[in-house]
Write a structure and sequence with these properties.
The chain has helices at 2-17, 33-40, 67-74, 76-85, 91-96, 107-122, 126-140, 145-159, 162-172; strands at 23-26, 29-31, 43-47, 51-53, 88-90, 102-104. It is α/β, with parallel strands linked by helices. It is globular, with a radius of gyration of 16 Å.
Length: 173
Amino acid sequence: AESLLGGLAELTIEIRNLPAVVIAQAQGAAIGGGCGLTCVCDMSLTHDAAKVGFPEVDLAVCPAVVAPWVVRKVGAGRARQILLRGGLLSGAEGAAMGLFDRSLATVEALEDEVATLADRIAGGGQLALRETKRLLNDLDGSTDAEIVRRGAATSASVVASEEAQAALRSRFG
């Protein structure tokens, strides 16, 4: 668990520090770490019928690896509500909670919107985009990789606990 969750933490740090603008397009399901990855991206879109959220606490597991990114995306109060309640949301509900920048009515509309957004961004000044992203990362604390790594260690510790192991065995055999 420590290696897997540590690797996920490093992946999130790498994604956020990419010089290019990163757009997440969540189709179908973005659950747990998948939903967390959409929060790492610069922009994220989904569709109304998608299934999104963080059911980790339902499984006696801690979503601490993605918690810093969720807090940065939706704010501390909303992050508490989302991460502590567990369960899943529709894409429309996830967007209303701030997990996604926008939820489109259908998958087709989502695909069209993401393509339009990517074209718009690609037409911008690359230096201006890169430096704006760098400044935004500094302003919101995204450059603090240690908090993300601490989250991974916390998650690994919880996963290794007797409580989590018993819950996972009873759920998944």
